Amino acid sequence: MADNLTPELVDYLLAILYLTTKRGKRCCIKLIEVSKILGVAKPTTSLMLRKLLRMGLITKSSEGIAISELGLEVSKAITKKHEVLEDMLIQHGLDHDRACEVARVLELIVDDADITKIARTLKSSQSVCDKLQCRLDSAVRSRKGR
User: Fold this and answer.
1) CA nearest neighbour of 131 among 78, 96, 75, 79
2) Are residues 45 and 19 part of one domain?
3) Distance of alpha carbon 3 from alpha carbon 25, whole angstroms
4) Cα–Cα dist 18/82, whole Å
5) Strands (DSSP E) along 1-111, which ranges?
6) 60 DSSP β-pair partners
7) Shared domain check, 88 and 43
8) Which of 5, 6, 79, 129 could lock 134 by a disulfide, CB 3.0 to 4.6 Å apart?
9) Cα dihedral across residues 3, 57, 38, 98: positive or negative
């Protein structure tokens, strides 16, 4: 996985994935769209997108921003980790919103081997939410709580 990822950088990466998935194809996204979905200022969005660009997780063209192959791979892995961690936390008594919030932090700490072990011990999925939308909602709630 890409080094130096923070939950905040993942928020931006997943916002781009969400916006492109919502359109049904991998296409270019405008900075303002990312800014709006996360509820952050355009200068902050610009800074974070530059970091993702340097990491090779997104590409930039005159048409806008797109997720790179590496970015797609990383975002899918993070989304899967988030899903397993959220389900585990729900099965251990946390409500959905809190489980999502905690999973957002843990998804960058827990490695793939541990996720595989955790997934094997879980009952069937406890959450029926759209994991990508859920993850973005948690990011927005986190920002509002600051």
Assistant:
1) 79
2) yes
3) 27
4) 15
5) 58-61, 64-67
6) 65
7) no
8) 129
9) negative
